[in-house]
Specification:
This protein has 833 residues and is mainly β. The chain folds into 5 domains: 76-190, 2-Layer Sandwich (Alpha-Beta Plaits), CATH 3.30.70; 204-322, Sandwich (Jelly Rolls); 327-434, Spermadhesin, CUB domain (Jelly Rolls), CATH 2.60.120; 533-587, Irregular (Low-density Lipoprotein Receptor), CATH 4.10.400; 610-831, Trypsin-like serine proteases (Thrombin, subunit H, Beta Barrel). Helix content is 11%, strand content 31%. The strands form 11 sheets. Strands 41-42-43-46-45-44 form a 6-stranded antiparallel beta barrel. A hairpin with a 5-residue loop joins β32 and β33 (564-565). The structure holds arginine (ARG). Arginine binds next to β45.
Length: 833
């Protein structure tokens, strides 16, 4: 169990400590004086005097049966944790056993050194140790509690992390009488709930990782963890090994201040070596998977709520440290993929990698990141002073949905740095050589260097991501030339949507500049806007006003108690707008995922509201979405056909939690009890193409089966918004149904454009979504499935139901969907949802 913590080069152990010790060199004497004054002050101020490092084993004995330090807390106590690096101590495996003589002797020696350093007289400072070894000695992990009596609370500010560290550091460095040298100290203010006695028994586990994966799970899993849990798993591995811990199942309360899992690259809950802190629910497509940098890792589960969640299941194993530390290299292929170490698992803390890409002379290198997540608390992404990727002198960190770079020569270096604390999923980047004289053969070259289809340039959509495909366009005859140089379809002029971005397509549209134009084209003086009076017939002058109490229009959100809220998309935005809170009820839990591309396989659990409807012996024929345990939403045209059998509930089976049509793990198959198709559904026009399906038994929600949020009737899905359609329908016109669930990103299309391209066939119960350029669309077999949009509130809302289209993915023939907002009231009347 003795391992070698190799810390190489400039990524040396504790950056923050180095900084503090530099400071110490400059003002050593001053610090010494200050320390003296501080200590004298503390000792005087506290009548009960201060800080003694109790002999650790006495402490352990006296608290043997008490699980957490926090149980001993007075009204004001602070817990610090960290480690001390001990040089001159040779490692002995017995040090890992808190009952051994070796452990007790060493703990007592350090105790003495530290109490001497601090000249502490009275016991209000207690400390606990654990040891592990490194190649040049031993690391002692500690956590300590300072109790500050109420009469001394004015000294509380002195107990800052920096101050305690300064006192310890300068004092310990000055110690010259002992054979033990403390060469490094870290201290972090710690949540007392995580400071557990190393001899605690309840929910405290010491595990030994081997190369074979072993499992553990949270208490009560999968039925639910108890409230007020303080659990700790301490995992060690043998030398030259690192530890990987993955969580195939993870469902903790959503509010991280109540319940959370905190993982450390240390044996003490030391913030400066935190790996990550997570709560919430994770779908199987995005599991949590972390690795340590050395041969130890600490996992804490803290729960405070009574809300029971299933908890987690974890698999831990030892992996060779070389897998964690070896990365980078020279790449001479003309294309390839580079990922952060151990991707898609979280990258390890404290690693540095450098990849040097070199392509043939005369070529350049294009880098396209398909994943970039390096988020750390307290980091300014303009500076990236912690973990980062560096390319051509620029550091990148945080989270980016699209990042593309091109080199200026035929060689480019990509460096990756992770510091001691907090890690994340990392990055995956595709690199390829290109000819700078013809960077995108037969395609359009974006300024960022990426290539897009030629037809996407000057089509009114920002496909490059940097707008470069929409600049300097010669507007076609059927296009409107915006003031800012963009071209937009002429149809978008005067449609009350600012398509140009500079408003130029909406200027001079009948109403004067200082006038408000109502939905029906009537112009009223601008001051009718948000004056708490409904002036336009359709109430549009009071829509999206922060405050228009009592005004109820088609644009208002109606609370259950019939109050109206005049705010755009008030529901599920985590702000209580209705006095009865009805705008924040029935909001399904969001999955925080990054979604990329269009028309590709979906992951299991990625669209947990998607349902497959099987009819008699035909297998999958339509899609549906989950509204609640008992109700599904689909399209009428799946049930109202020339064949009456389609309307018989017992002829249908519903499959929830499915991804692969041939795999049934985690899938819930339930029969239908009732089919309610809209009474106004018109088989000729597909108007009111909506149906509600009542299940004969309730669904059980899991992490692959979850309901979708319904938008209120006032919810706005603006033209241009990118939404997602999913289903097992045909993958091209006339093609075969898909075996794996497919997802495609489609854009909401402006109503007047929709009406023109469908030759006037759309009614107000329909909306268009897709691309006028064609290429991405729903198709046969997707019907009844959901069109969902992700809102800033962090929730997915269902905007449409797949209904019809002319062919599939044809140019100028976008998909037509039933407009859920228009049919919202009917859903409520029928189901109460
Ligand atoms: N009516 C089709 C079905 O039954 C869905 C058509 C959707 N077509 C489209 N191009 N978006 O599956």
């Amino acid at each position: 169990f003795c391992s070698f913590f190799s810390k190489q080069g400039h990524n040396g152990h504790h950056e923050r400590i180095d900084f503090l010790s530099n400071k110490e060199k400059v003002s050593k004497r001053k610090t010494g004086l200050l320390v003296g004054v501080l200590l004298a002050f503390l000792v005087l101020a506290a009548v009960a005097a201060f800080l003694i490092w109790l002999f650790v084993c006495e402490f352990i004995n006296s608290f043997k049966h008490k699980a957490t330090l926090s149980a001993q807390r007075g009204p004001q106590s602070q817990v610090f944790s960290g480690h001390l690096k001990l040089a001159g101590v040779s490692y002995d495996q017995n040090l890992e056993d808190t009952e051994s003589k070796e452990f007790k002797d060493l703990a007592s020696t350090i105790q003495e050194i530290v109490s001497l350093t601090l000249e502490i007289k009275k016991p209000s400072f207690i400390s606990l140790f654990l040891f592990s070894c490194i190649f040049e000695g031993v690391i002692a992990y500690y956590w300590s509690q300072f109790d500050i009596p109420p009469e001394d609370l004015d000294v509380l500010p002195e107990f800052s992390e920096e101050r305690v560290l300064e006192v310890l550091e300068s004092g310990l460095k000055a110690q010259r009488f002992s054979s033990i040298h403390i060469t490094e100290v870290t201290t972090s203010l710690t949540d007392p709930r995580m400071a557990r006695s190393p001899t605690a028994r309840d929910c405290f586990f010491r595990l030994e990782a081997t190369e074979n994966g072993q499992e553990f799970s949270s208490p009560g899993y999968p039925h639910g963890y108890p409230p007020k849990s303080r659990c700790q798993w301490q995992i060690r591995a043998s030398e030259d090994m690192a530890i990987s811990v993955s969580f195939p199942f993870f469902h903790i309360e959503d509010d991280c201040s109540d319940d959370f899992v905190f993982i450390y690259d240390s044996l003490s809950p030391d913030e400066s070596q935190a790996i990550t802190n997570k709560c919430g629910q994770r779908p199987p497509s995005n599991p949590l998977e972390v690795v340590s940098s050395g041969n130890i890792i600490l996992i804490n589960l803290i729960t405070d709520t009574d809300v029971q969640r299933p908890g987690f299941q974890a698999v831990y194993k030892a992996i060779p440290s070389s897998m964690v530390k070896t990365c980078g290299g020279v790449l001479i292929a003309t294309e390839g993929v580079i990922t952060s170490p151990l991707y898609p698992s979280f990258y390890p803390p404290a690693v540095d990698c450098k990849w040097s890409i070199k392509v043939p002379a005369g070529k350049k290198v294009r880098l396209k990141f398909t994943m970039f997540r390096m988020k750390e608390p307290g980091v300014d992404i303009r500076e990236c002073h912690k973990d980062y990727v560096e390319v051509m002198g620029t550091k990148y960190c945080g989270e980016m949905s699209s990042l593309s770079l091109t080199s200026s020569t035929n060689a480019v270096d990509l460096t990756f740095h992770s510091d001691e604390s907090y890690t994340d999923k990392g990055f995956s980047v595709q690199y390829s050589a290109f000819d700078p004289t013809n960077p995108c053969p037969d395609m359009f070259a974006c300024a960022s260097g990426i290539c897009i289809g030629k037809e996407m340039a000057c089509d009114g959509w920002n496909d490059c991501g940097d707008m470069s495909d929409e600049m300097d366009c010669k507007c076609e005859k059927d296009q409107f030339a915006c003031k800012n140089g963009l071209c937009k379809p002429k149809l978008w002029e005067c449609d009350r949507v600012n398509d140009c971005g500079d408003g130029s397509d909406e200027k001079g549209c009948g109403c004067e500049e200082n006038e408000w134009s109502c939905g029906n084209g009537v112009c009223l003086p601008q001051d009718v806007r948000c004056d708490n009076k409904k002036d336009c017939e359709d109430g549009s002058d009071e829509a999206s006003c922060i405050n228009s109490p009592g005004i109820c229009s088609a644009f208002s959100f109606k609370c259950n108690n019939n109050d109206c809220v005049n705010k755009v998309n008030a529901e599920c935005d985590r702000i209580k707008d209705c006095s009865d809170n009805s705008d924040e009820e029935y909001c399904s839990k969001p999955y925080k995922l990054s979604r990329i591309g269009g028309g590709q396989n979906a992951e299991l659990g990625e669209w947990p509201w998607q349902v497959s409807l099987h009819f008699m012996t035909y297998g999958h024929v339509c899609g549906a979405s989950i509204l609640s345990e008992r109700w599904l939403l689909s399209a009428s045209h799946c049930f109202v056909t020339s064949n009456p059998a389609n309307h018989v509930p017992s002829n249908w089976q519903t499959y929830s939690g499915m991804q692969n049509q041939y795999k049934y793990d985690g899938v819930q198959r339930l029969p239908l009890k009732r089919i309610i198709s809209h009474p106004d559904y018109n088989q000729m026009t597909f108007d009111y193409d909506i149906a509600l399906l009542e299940l004969s038994e309730p669904l059980e929600f899991t992490n692959t089966i979850q309901p979708i949020c319904l938008p209120s009737s006032s919810h706005v899905f603006p033209a241009g918004m990118a939404c997602w359609v999913t289903g097992w329908g045909a993958q091209r016109e006339g093609g075969q149904k898909a075996q794996l669930l497919q997802k495609a990103s489609v854009k909401i299309i402006n109503d007047s454009v929709c009406n023109v391209v469908t030759e006037g066939q759309v009614t107000s119960r329909m909306l268009c979504s897709g691309f006028l350029a064609g290429g991405v669309d729903a198709c046969q077999g997707d019907s009844g499935g959901p069109l969902v949009c992700f809102e800033e509130s962090g929730k997915w809302f269902q905007a449409g139901i797949v209904s019809w289209g002319e062919g599939c993915a044809r140019r100028n023939k976008p998909g037509v969907y039933s407009r859920v907002t228009k049919l919202r009231q009917w859903i409520k009347d029928e189901t109460g949802i």
